[in-house]
Amino acid sequence: MSIMKNFLNVILILCVCLNWCFTEGAEEKESGKVDSYTFQVSSLFPSSSSSCTPSSKASNKKSSLPVVHMHGACSHLSSNKDARLDHDEILRRDQARVKSIHSKLSKNNADGVSMTKSTELPAKDGTTIGSANYIVTIGIGTPKHDVSLTFDTGSGLTWTQCQPCLESCYSQQEPIFNPSTSSSYQNVSCSSPMCGNNSSCNSGTNCRYGIRYADGSVTIGVLAKEKFTLTNSDVLDNIYFGCGENNTGLFNGAAGILGLGRGKRSLPTQTATIYNNIFSYCLPSSASNTGHLTFGSDGISGSAKFTPFTSFPIPSLYGITIVGISVGDKKLEITPTTFSTYGAIIDSGTVITRLPTKVYAELRSVFKEKMSSYKATSGNGYFDTCYDFTGLDTITIPKIAFFFAGGTVVDLPGIGILYPLTRSQVCLAFAGDNEHIPAIFGNVQQKTMEIVYDVAGGRVGFAPNGCS
Ligand SMILES: *[C@@H]1O[C@H](CO)[C@@H](O)[C@H](O)[C@H]1NC(C)=O
Ligand SMILES: *[C@@H]1O[C@H](CO)[C@@H](O)[C@H](O)[C@H]1NC(C)=O
Ligand SMILES: *[C@@H]1O[C@H](CO)[C@@H](O)[C@H](O)[C@H]1NC(C)=O
Ligand SMILES: *[C@@H]1O[C@H](CO)[C@@H](O)[C@H](O)[C@H]1NC(C)=O
Protein backbone atom coordinates (compact mmCIF):
# COMPACT_ATOMS: atom_id res chain seq x y z
CA MET A 1 0.00 0.00 0.00
CA SER A 2 2.68 2.52 0.99
CA ILE A 3 4.76 1.47 -2.01
CA MET A 4 1.79 2.28 -4.20
CA LYS A 5 1.36 5.60 -2.43
CA ASN A 6 5.03 6.45 -2.93
CA PHE A 7 4.73 5.47 -6.55
CA LEU A 8 1.78 7.80 -7.01
CA ASN A 9 3.68 10.57 -5.26
CA VAL A 10 6.57 10.09 -7.63
CA ILE A 11 4.19 10.27 -10.57
CA LEU A 12 2.62 13.41 -9.12
CA ILE A 13 6.01 15.05 -8.58
CA LEU A 14 7.08 14.09 -12.08
CA CYS A 15 3.97 15.67 -13.48
CA VAL A 16 4.50 18.85 -11.50
CA CYS A 17 8.13 18.97 -12.63
CA LEU A 18 7.17 18.51 -16.23
CA ASN A 19 4.65 21.24 -15.64
CA TRP A 20 2.18 19.27 -17.63
CA CYS A 21 0.27 16.20 -16.60
CA PHE A 22 -1.33 14.07 -19.24
CA THR A 23 -3.42 11.04 -18.84
CA GLU A 24 -4.64 9.07 -21.77
CA GLY A 25 -7.97 10.28 -22.99
CA ALA A 26 -11.29 9.18 -21.69
CA GLU A 27 -12.58 8.65 -25.19
CA GLU A 28 -10.02 6.02 -26.09
CA LYS A 29 -10.90 4.48 -29.44
CA GLU A 30 -10.83 0.86 -30.50
CA SER A 31 -7.80 1.62 -32.63
CA GLY A 32 -6.02 2.70 -29.46
CA LYS A 33 -6.00 6.28 -30.71
CA VAL A 34 -6.52 8.90 -28.04
CA ASP A 35 -9.00 11.66 -28.86
CA SER A 36 -8.67 13.79 -25.77
CA TYR A 37 -6.24 14.97 -23.12
CA THR A 38 -6.94 15.23 -19.42
CA PHE A 39 -4.68 17.44 -17.36
CA GLN A 40 -4.48 19.76 -14.38
CA VAL A 41 -5.63 23.32 -14.95
CA SER A 42 -2.64 24.56 -12.92
CA SER A 43 -0.27 23.06 -15.48
CA LEU A 44 -1.39 25.70 -17.97
CA PHE A 45 0.18 28.46 -15.91
CA PRO A 46 3.88 29.11 -15.26
CA SER A 47 5.03 27.72 -11.92
CA SER A 48 5.00 30.35 -9.20
CA SER A 49 8.48 29.38 -8.04
CA SER A 50 11.34 31.41 -9.41
CA SER A 51 13.49 28.39 -10.22
CA CYS A 52 14.38 27.26 -13.73
CA THR A 53 14.19 23.63 -14.85
CA PRO A 54 16.70 23.07 -17.66
CA SER A 55 15.95 20.83 -20.63
CA SER A 56 17.69 17.48 -20.25
CA LYS A 57 17.63 16.93 -24.02
CA ALA A 58 19.72 20.03 -24.70
CA SER A 59 22.67 18.92 -22.61
CA ASN A 60 22.72 15.49 -24.30
CA LYS A 61 23.11 16.88 -27.79
CA LYS A 62 26.12 18.21 -29.61
CA SER A 63 25.97 21.78 -30.96
CA SER A 64 23.00 22.63 -28.78
CA LEU A 65 22.17 25.94 -27.10
CA PRO A 66 19.48 26.58 -24.49
CA VAL A 67 16.42 28.49 -25.70
CA VAL A 68 14.67 30.44 -22.97
CA HIS A 69 11.62 32.59 -22.71
CA MET A 70 12.63 36.23 -22.66
CA HIS A 71 10.70 36.91 -19.48
CA GLY A 72 10.91 34.45 -16.64
CA ALA A 73 13.00 32.38 -14.30
CA CYS A 74 15.27 30.94 -17.01
CA SER A 75 16.24 34.26 -18.59
CA HIS A 76 19.54 35.66 -17.34
CA LEU A 77 18.48 39.09 -18.50
CA SER A 78 17.79 39.40 -14.82
CA SER A 79 16.17 42.77 -14.51
CA ASN A 80 13.62 41.45 -16.97
CA LYS A 81 12.69 38.49 -14.80
CA ASP A 82 9.42 39.88 -13.61
CA ALA A 83 8.79 42.16 -16.52
CA ARG A 84 6.43 39.66 -18.06
CA LEU A 85 4.80 41.13 -21.12
CA ASP A 86 1.10 41.42 -20.59
CA HIS A 87 -1.06 39.28 -22.80
CA ASP A 88 -2.64 42.21 -24.60
CA GLU A 89 0.79 43.46 -25.56
CA ILE A 90 1.94 39.99 -26.70
CA LEU A 91 -1.19 39.51 -28.80
CA ARG A 92 -1.13 43.04 -30.20
CA ARG A 93 2.48 42.56 -31.38
CA ASP A 94 1.60 39.14 -32.70
CA GLN A 95 -1.17 40.63 -34.81
CA ALA A 96 1.31 43.22 -36.10
CA ARG A 97 3.70 40.46 -37.19
CA VAL A 98 0.95 38.61 -39.02
CA LYS A 99 -0.15 41.83 -40.73
CA SER A 100 3.42 42.52 -41.82
CA ILE A 101 3.68 39.03 -43.33
CA HIS A 102 0.48 39.76 -45.27
CA SER A 103 1.72 43.10 -46.51
CA LYS A 104 5.09 41.64 -47.51
CA LEU A 105 3.28 39.18 -49.73
CA SER A 106 2.62 42.01 -52.14
CA LYS A 107 6.33 42.88 -52.37
CA ASN A 108 9.11 40.46 -53.11
CA ASN A 109 12.37 41.59 -51.57
CA ALA A 110 14.10 38.32 -50.94
CA ASP A 111 15.02 38.26 -47.25
CA GLY A 112 13.88 41.64 -45.95
CA VAL A 113 17.46 42.88 -45.80
CA SER A 114 18.41 45.83 -47.96
CA MET A 115 22.01 46.30 -48.91
CA THR A 116 22.58 49.98 -49.21
CA LYS A 117 25.32 52.55 -49.26
CA SER A 118 23.07 55.14 -47.78
CA THR A 119 22.29 55.33 -44.07
CA GLU A 120 18.64 55.79 -44.92
CA LEU A 121 16.31 52.99 -45.81
CA PRO A 122 13.78 53.03 -48.61
CA ALA A 123 10.87 50.95 -47.37
CA LYS A 124 9.42 48.91 -44.57
CA ASP A 125 10.93 45.62 -45.62
CA GLY A 126 11.35 43.43 -42.56
CA THR A 127 8.67 41.41 -40.93
CA THR A 128 7.54 42.86 -37.63
CA ILE A 129 9.45 41.08 -34.94
CA GLY A 130 6.27 40.49 -32.95
CA SER A 131 6.41 39.67 -29.29
CA ALA A 132 9.93 38.24 -29.61
CA ASN A 133 9.45 35.64 -26.91
CA TYR A 134 12.43 33.32 -27.18
CA ILE A 135 16.12 34.07 -26.89
CA VAL A 136 19.43 32.25 -27.24
CA THR A 137 22.82 33.47 -26.04
CA ILE A 138 25.85 33.23 -28.32
CA GLY A 139 29.39 34.61 -28.17
CA ILE A 140 30.61 37.08 -30.79
CA GLY A 141 34.23 38.10 -31.41
CA THR A 142 37.64 37.43 -29.83
CA PRO A 143 37.61 37.42 -26.88
CA LYS A 144 34.02 36.32 -27.05
CA HIS A 145 31.33 38.72 -25.99
CA ASP A 146 28.00 37.13 -25.03
CA VAL A 147 24.84 38.53 -26.53
CA SER A 148 21.27 37.28 -26.14
CA LEU A 149 19.45 37.35 -29.44
CA THR A 150 15.82 36.85 -30.35
CA PHE A 151 15.40 33.56 -32.11
CA ASP A 152 13.60 34.04 -35.45
CA THR A 153 12.99 31.63 -38.32
CA GLY A 154 11.51 34.58 -40.22
CA SER A 155 14.74 36.65 -40.29
CA GLY A 156 17.37 36.34 -43.00
CA LEU A 157 20.27 38.08 -41.22
CA THR A 158 21.71 37.91 -37.70
CA TRP A 159 22.45 41.35 -36.27
CA THR A 160 23.43 42.90 -32.98
CA GLN A 161 23.83 46.46 -31.79
CA CYS A 162 27.41 47.68 -32.08
CA GLN A 163 29.32 50.34 -30.21
CA PRO A 164 29.95 53.16 -30.56
CA CYS A 165 26.28 53.31 -31.64
CA LEU A 166 27.12 56.09 -34.09
CA GLU A 167 23.53 57.21 -34.34
CA SER A 168 21.39 55.41 -31.78
CA CYS A 169 21.08 52.21 -29.75
CA TYR A 170 18.01 51.16 -27.80
CA SER A 171 18.66 50.00 -24.26
CA GLN A 172 19.71 46.37 -23.98
CA GLN A 173 20.36 44.30 -20.84
CA GLU A 174 23.89 43.17 -21.70
CA PRO A 175 26.89 45.33 -22.63
CA ILE A 176 26.79 46.27 -26.33
CA PHE A 177 29.34 44.53 -28.57
CA ASN A 178 32.29 46.72 -29.47
CA PRO A 179 34.03 45.59 -32.69
CA SER A 180 37.18 47.57 -31.89
CA THR A 181 37.87 45.26 -28.92
CA SER A 182 37.67 42.10 -31.06
CA SER A 183 40.69 40.79 -32.96
CA SER A 184 38.55 38.69 -35.32
CA TYR A 185 36.22 41.45 -36.54
CA GLN A 186 36.34 42.31 -40.26
CA ASN A 187 34.38 44.78 -42.33
CA VAL A 188 32.86 43.43 -45.55
CA SER A 189 33.43 45.35 -48.76
CA CYS A 190 30.84 46.22 -51.35
CA SER A 191 32.38 43.78 -53.80
CA SER A 192 31.60 40.79 -51.59
CA PRO A 193 28.93 38.49 -53.05
CA MET A 194 27.29 38.64 -49.60
CA CYS A 195 26.69 42.33 -50.21
CA GLY A 196 24.23 41.60 -52.99
CA ASN A 197 24.32 43.40 -56.28
CA ASN A 198 23.55 46.98 -55.52
CA SER A 199 25.02 49.33 -58.07
CA SER A 200 24.82 52.20 -55.61
CA CYS A 201 27.35 50.44 -53.35
CA ASN A 202 30.82 51.28 -54.75
CA SER A 203 33.40 48.56 -54.51
CA GLY A 204 36.07 49.45 -52.01
CA THR A 205 33.66 50.91 -49.50
CA ASN A 206 32.08 49.02 -46.64
CA CYS A 207 28.91 47.13 -47.34
CA ARG A 208 25.99 48.46 -45.35
CA TYR A 209 22.74 46.74 -44.45
CA GLY A 210 19.41 47.92 -43.19
CA ILE A 211 16.19 46.35 -41.99
CA ARG A 212 13.13 48.43 -41.35
CA TYR A 213 10.52 46.38 -39.56
CA ALA A 214 6.87 46.93 -40.30
CA ASP A 215 6.24 48.34 -36.81
CA GLY A 216 8.80 51.11 -37.48
CA SER A 217 11.70 49.43 -35.64
CA VAL A 218 14.96 49.85 -37.52
CA THR A 219 18.50 48.52 -37.58
CA ILE A 220 21.06 50.05 -39.92
CA GLY A 221 24.78 49.40 -39.91
CA VAL A 222 27.69 47.68 -41.57
CA LEU A 223 27.79 44.13 -42.82
CA ALA A 224 30.70 42.47 -41.00
CA LYS A 225 32.37 39.10 -40.45
CA GLU A 226 33.11 37.66 -37.02
CA LYS A 227 33.89 34.59 -35.01
CA PHE A 228 30.67 33.15 -33.54
CA THR A 229 30.87 30.90 -30.49
CA LEU A 230 27.68 28.83 -30.32
CA THR A 231 28.99 26.32 -27.76
CA ASN A 232 32.48 25.52 -26.42
CA SER A 233 33.02 23.15 -29.31
CA ASP A 234 31.14 25.10 -31.99
CA VAL A 235 33.33 28.06 -32.78
CA LEU A 236 32.71 29.35 -36.29
CA ASP A 237 34.95 31.77 -38.17
CA ASN A 238 33.88 34.44 -40.62
CA ILE A 239 30.15 34.50 -40.01
CA TYR A 240 28.46 37.42 -41.75
CA PHE A 241 26.25 39.53 -39.50
CA GLY A 242 24.90 43.02 -39.21
CA CYS A 243 26.76 45.35 -36.85
CA GLY A 244 24.03 47.85 -36.06
CA GLU A 245 24.96 51.51 -35.63
CA ASN A 246 21.49 53.00 -35.78
CA ASN A 247 18.91 50.86 -34.00
CA THR A 248 15.55 51.83 -32.65
CA GLY A 249 12.50 49.84 -31.72
CA LEU A 250 10.81 47.17 -29.73
CA PHE A 251 13.37 44.44 -29.22
CA ASN A 252 12.55 43.80 -25.54
CA GLY A 253 16.09 44.47 -24.40
CA ALA A 254 17.58 41.63 -26.48
CA ALA A 255 20.85 42.51 -28.20
CA GLY A 256 19.53 41.75 -31.70
CA ILE A 257 18.15 38.92 -33.81
CA LEU A 258 19.44 35.44 -34.64
CA GLY A 259 18.45 34.96 -38.29
CA LEU A 260 17.32 31.38 -38.90
CA GLY A 261 15.34 32.11 -42.07
CA ARG A 262 16.07 31.00 -45.58
CA GLY A 263 18.39 33.00 -47.82
CA LYS A 264 22.13 33.20 -48.27
CA ARG A 265 22.84 35.40 -45.23
CA SER A 266 20.97 33.33 -42.65
CA LEU A 267 23.00 31.37 -40.11
CA PRO A 268 21.87 27.88 -41.26
CA THR A 269 22.78 28.72 -44.88
CA GLN A 270 26.16 30.19 -43.95
CA THR A 271 27.05 27.13 -41.87
CA ALA A 272 25.68 24.58 -44.35
CA THR A 273 29.09 22.95 -44.88
CA ILE A 274 29.43 22.35 -41.14
CA TYR A 275 25.87 21.48 -40.11
CA ASN A 276 24.48 20.32 -43.42
CA ASN A 277 21.76 22.99 -43.34
CA ILE A 278 19.85 21.18 -40.62
CA PHE A 279 18.78 22.71 -37.33
CA SER A 280 16.15 21.80 -34.80
CA TYR A 281 14.60 23.39 -31.77
CA CYS A 282 12.21 22.85 -28.92
CA LEU A 283 10.34 25.80 -27.46
CA PRO A 284 9.85 25.31 -23.70
CA SER A 285 6.43 24.75 -22.15
CA SER A 286 6.77 27.79 -19.91
CA ALA A 287 9.06 30.58 -18.82
CA SER A 288 10.39 28.36 -16.04
CA ASN A 289 11.69 25.65 -18.40
CA THR A 290 14.35 25.77 -21.08
CA GLY A 291 14.27 24.38 -24.60
CA HIS A 292 17.06 24.05 -27.12
CA LEU A 293 18.31 25.14 -30.52
CA THR A 294 20.54 22.50 -32.09
CA PHE A 295 22.63 22.73 -35.25
CA GLY A 296 23.30 19.64 -37.34
CA SER A 297 21.63 16.28 -37.30
CA ASP A 298 23.17 14.87 -34.13
CA GLY A 299 20.57 13.54 -31.72
CA ILE A 300 17.51 14.24 -33.85
CA SER A 301 14.62 12.17 -32.60
CA GLY A 302 14.08 8.95 -34.55
CA SER A 303 10.35 9.48 -34.17
CA ALA A 304 10.33 12.75 -36.13
CA LYS A 305 7.71 12.75 -38.90
CA PHE A 306 8.50 14.90 -41.93
CA THR A 307 6.61 16.97 -44.46
CA PRO A 308 8.20 18.73 -47.47
CA PHE A 309 8.92 22.47 -47.42
CA THR A 310 7.05 24.22 -50.19
CA SER A 311 7.91 27.49 -51.86
CA PHE A 312 6.27 30.57 -50.42
CA PRO A 313 6.03 34.03 -52.02
CA ILE A 314 8.28 35.45 -49.26
CA PRO A 315 11.34 33.27 -49.83
CA SER A 316 12.90 33.87 -46.39
CA LEU A 317 9.95 32.08 -44.76
CA TYR A 318 9.45 28.32 -44.53
CA GLY A 319 6.44 27.19 -46.55
CA ILE A 320 4.57 24.00 -45.63
CA THR A 321 1.40 22.29 -46.90
CA ILE A 322 -1.49 21.69 -44.52
CA VAL A 323 -4.03 19.23 -45.91
CA GLY A 324 -6.28 18.63 -42.92
CA ILE A 325 -7.07 19.21 -39.27
CA SER A 326 -8.93 17.01 -36.82
CA VAL A 327 -10.53 17.89 -33.51
CA GLY A 328 -11.08 14.87 -31.30
CA ASP A 329 -12.45 12.12 -33.53
CA LYS A 330 -13.77 14.58 -36.13
CA LYS A 331 -11.86 15.52 -39.25
CA LEU A 332 -12.68 19.04 -40.48
CA GLU A 333 -14.08 19.38 -43.97
CA ILE A 334 -11.03 20.81 -45.65
CA THR A 335 -10.80 20.54 -49.41
CA PRO A 336 -7.41 20.39 -51.12
CA THR A 337 -7.84 24.00 -52.28
CA THR A 338 -8.64 25.40 -48.84
CA PHE A 339 -5.00 26.03 -48.04
CA SER A 340 -3.37 25.77 -51.44
CA THR A 341 -4.41 29.20 -52.73
CA TYR A 342 -2.63 31.19 -50.05
CA GLY A 343 -0.34 28.51 -48.70
CA ALA A 344 0.99 28.07 -45.20
CA ILE A 345 4.21 28.67 -43.27
CA ILE A 346 5.76 27.49 -40.05
CA ASP A 347 7.06 30.44 -38.06
CA SER A 348 8.85 30.62 -34.70
CA GLY A 349 7.95 34.28 -34.28
CA THR A 350 4.16 34.13 -34.69
CA VAL A 351 2.51 33.22 -31.39
CA ILE A 352 -1.01 32.03 -32.29
CA THR A 353 -1.69 29.77 -35.29
CA ARG A 354 -3.66 31.63 -37.97
CA LEU A 355 -6.15 29.81 -40.19
CA PRO A 356 -8.44 30.92 -43.03
CA THR A 357 -11.77 32.12 -41.54
CA LYS A 358 -13.83 29.15 -42.69
CA VAL A 359 -11.37 26.59 -41.38
CA TYR A 360 -11.16 28.40 -38.06
CA ALA A 361 -14.94 28.61 -37.83
CA GLU A 362 -15.26 24.87 -38.26
CA LEU A 363 -12.45 24.09 -35.84
CA ARG A 364 -14.09 26.36 -33.27
CA SER A 365 -17.52 24.84 -33.74
CA VAL A 366 -16.29 21.25 -33.26
CA PHE A 367 -14.12 22.30 -30.31
CA LYS A 368 -17.08 24.09 -28.66
CA GLU A 369 -19.27 21.05 -29.12
CA LYS A 370 -16.71 18.82 -27.41
CA MET A 371 -16.20 21.37 -24.62
CA SER A 372 -19.91 21.91 -24.01
CA SER A 373 -19.71 20.67 -20.42
CA TYR A 374 -17.43 23.60 -19.49
CA LYS A 375 -18.54 27.12 -18.68
CA ALA A 376 -17.94 29.36 -21.69
CA THR A 377 -16.87 32.94 -21.08
CA SER A 378 -16.19 36.10 -23.07
CA GLY A 379 -13.22 36.50 -25.40
CA ASN A 380 -10.74 39.39 -25.42
CA GLY A 381 -10.60 40.78 -28.94
CA TYR A 382 -8.01 38.23 -30.11
CA PHE A 383 -9.79 35.09 -28.94
CA ASP A 384 -13.49 34.32 -29.23
CA THR A 385 -13.63 30.87 -27.62
CA CYS A 386 -12.77 30.98 -23.94
CA TYR A 387 -13.66 28.98 -20.84
CA ASP A 388 -13.88 29.67 -17.14
CA PHE A 389 -12.03 26.87 -15.33
CA THR A 390 -12.35 28.44 -11.88
CA GLY A 391 -12.71 25.75 -9.21
CA LEU A 392 -11.72 22.88 -11.51
CA ASP A 393 -8.70 20.69 -10.79
CA THR A 394 -8.54 18.86 -14.08
CA ILE A 395 -10.08 19.33 -17.50
CA THR A 396 -10.47 17.08 -20.54
CA ILE A 397 -10.06 18.71 -23.94
CA PRO A 398 -10.27 17.24 -27.44
CA LYS A 399 -6.98 16.45 -29.11
CA ILE A 400 -6.18 18.54 -32.20
CA ALA A 401 -4.09 17.03 -35.00
CA PHE A 402 -2.64 18.66 -38.13
CA PHE A 403 -2.33 16.68 -41.35
CA PHE A 404 0.55 17.78 -43.54
CA ALA A 405 1.53 16.85 -47.09
CA GLY A 406 3.27 13.51 -47.35
CA GLY A 407 0.86 11.72 -45.02
CA THR A 408 2.33 13.29 -41.86
CA VAL A 409 -0.07 13.63 -38.93
CA VAL A 410 1.07 15.73 -35.98
CA ASP A 411 -0.85 15.62 -32.69
CA LEU A 412 -0.52 18.99 -31.05
CA PRO A 413 0.63 18.79 -27.44
CA GLY A 414 -2.14 19.74 -24.99
CA ILE A 415 -0.24 22.91 -24.14
CA GLY A 416 -0.46 23.87 -27.82
CA ILE A 417 -4.25 24.03 -27.83
CA LEU A 418 -5.15 26.50 -25.09
CA TYR A 419 -3.93 30.01 -24.31
CA PRO A 420 -4.35 30.76 -20.59
CA LEU A 421 -5.13 34.44 -19.98
CA THR A 422 -6.34 33.79 -16.41
CA ARG A 423 -7.91 30.79 -14.69
CA SER A 424 -11.31 32.22 -15.45
CA GLN A 425 -10.44 32.91 -19.10
CA VAL A 426 -8.58 30.11 -20.93
CA CYS A 427 -8.98 30.37 -24.69
CA LEU A 428 -8.69 28.22 -27.80
CA ALA A 429 -5.26 29.27 -29.10
CA PHE A 430 -6.13 29.75 -32.77
CA ALA A 431 -7.39 32.65 -34.82
CA GLY A 432 -8.85 33.18 -38.25
CA ASP A 433 -8.85 36.77 -39.35
CA ASN A 434 -9.32 36.60 -43.10
CA GLU A 435 -10.30 34.15 -45.82
CA HIS A 436 -7.46 35.24 -48.06
CA ILE A 437 -4.46 34.64 -45.85
CA PRO A 438 -1.71 32.10 -45.68
CA ALA A 439 -2.07 29.84 -42.65
CA ILE A 440 0.70 30.32 -40.07
CA PHE A 441 1.67 27.46 -37.77
CA GLY A 442 2.68 29.47 -34.71
CA ASN A 443 4.85 28.97 -31.65
CA VAL A 444 2.15 28.15 -29.08
CA GLN A 445 1.33 25.09 -31.20
CA GLN A 446 5.04 24.20 -31.53
CA LYS A 447 5.79 24.25 -27.79
CA THR A 448 7.51 21.14 -26.38
CA MET A 449 7.77 19.48 -29.81
CA GLU A 450 11.11 18.95 -31.49
CA ILE A 451 10.87 20.81 -34.80
CA VAL A 452 13.51 19.73 -37.30
CA TYR A 453 14.36 22.10 -40.17
CA ASP A 454 16.10 19.79 -42.62
CA VAL A 455 16.62 22.58 -45.13
CA ALA A 456 19.06 20.55 -47.22
CA GLY A 457 16.57 17.70 -47.43
CA GLY A 458 13.73 20.14 -48.18
CA ARG A 459 11.59 19.01 -45.27
CA VAL A 460 10.48 19.87 -41.74
CA GLY A 461 9.92 17.24 -39.04
CA PHE A 462 7.95 17.05 -35.83
CA ALA A 463 8.56 14.82 -32.81
CA PRO A 464 6.83 14.87 -29.43
CA ASN A 465 8.55 15.68 -26.10
CA GLY A 466 11.46 17.56 -27.64
CA CYS A 467 12.48 19.54 -24.55
CA SER A 468 12.39 17.21 -21.60
C1 LIG B 1 20.40 49.58 -53.17
O1 LIG B 1 20.82 50.83 -52.62
C2 LIG B 1 19.85 51.86 -52.74
C3 LIG B 1 20.45 53.19 -52.26
O2 LIG B 1 21.17 53.05 -51.08
C4 LIG B 1 18.64 51.46 -51.92
O3 LIG B 1 17.63 52.43 -52.04
C5 LIG B 1 18.09 50.11 -52.44
O4 LIG B 1 17.04 49.66 -51.61
C6 LIG B 1 19.18 49.04 -52.42
N1 LIG B 1 18.68 47.82 -53.06
C7 LIG B 1 18.76 46.62 -52.47
C8 LIG B 1 18.20 45.48 -53.25
O5 LIG B 1 19.28 46.41 -51.38
C1 LIG C 1 18.89 56.54 -38.08
O1 LIG C 1 17.62 55.93 -38.32
C2 LIG C 1 16.55 56.80 -38.26
C3 LIG C 1 15.28 55.99 -38.39
O2 LIG C 1 15.23 55.31 -39.60
C4 LIG C 1 16.68 57.83 -39.39
O3 LIG C 1 15.61 58.77 -39.34
C5 LIG C 1 17.99 58.56 -39.22
O4 LIG C 1 18.20 59.43 -40.31
C6 LIG C 1 19.14 57.58 -39.15
N1 LIG C 1 20.37 58.31 -38.91
C7 LIG C 1 21.45 58.12 -39.64
C8 LIG C 1 22.63 58.96 -39.37
O5 LIG C 1 21.47 57.28 -40.54
C1 LIG D 1 35.49 49.05 -40.35
O1 LIG D 1 34.99 50.22 -40.98
C2 LIG D 1 34.83 51.33 -40.11
C3 LIG D 1 34.25 52.45 -40.93
O2 LIG D 1 33.03 52.08 -41.49
C4 LIG D 1 36.15 51.72 -39.50
O3 LIG D 1 35.95 52.77 -38.59
C5 LIG D 1 36.75 50.52 -38.79
O4 LIG D 1 38.04 50.85 -38.32
C6 LIG D 1 36.84 49.33 -39.72
N1 LIG D 1 37.29 48.18 -38.94
C7 LIG D 1 38.16 47.30 -39.39
C8 LIG D 1 38.57 46.22 -38.44
O5 LIG D 1 38.63 47.37 -40.50
C1 LIG E 1 24.31 42.42 -61.09
O1 LIG E 1 23.94 43.59 -61.81
C2 LIG E 1 24.50 43.66 -63.10
C3 LIG E 1 24.17 45.02 -63.72
O2 LIG E 1 22.97 45.54 -63.21
C4 LIG E 1 23.95 42.47 -63.91
O3 LIG E 1 24.50 42.49 -65.20
C5 LIG E 1 24.33 41.18 -63.23
O4 LIG E 1 23.74 40.07 -63.89
C6 LIG E 1 23.85 41.16 -61.80
N1 LIG E 1 24.34 39.99 -61.10
C7 LIG E 1 23.59 39.25 -60.31
C8 LIG E 1 24.27 38.09 -59.67
O5 LIG E 1 22.42 39.50 -60.06
From TrEMBL:
Residue ranges, annotated region (Disordered): 45-64
Annotated protein name in UniProt: Aspartyl protease AED1-like isoform X1
Sequence ranges assigned to domain Peptidase A1 in this UniProt record: 134-463
Keyword vocabulary terms for this entry: Signal
PANTHER family for this protein: ASPARTYL PROTEASE AED1, ASPARTYL PROTEASES
InterPro entries: Aspartic_peptidase_A1, CND41-like, PEPTIDASE_A1, Peptidase_aspartic_dom_sf, TAXi_C, TAXi_N
Family: Belongs to the peptidase A1 family.
Gene: LOC104769286
Listed Low complexity bias regions: 45-58
Pfam families for the chain: TAXi_C, TAXi_N
Signal peptide: 1-25
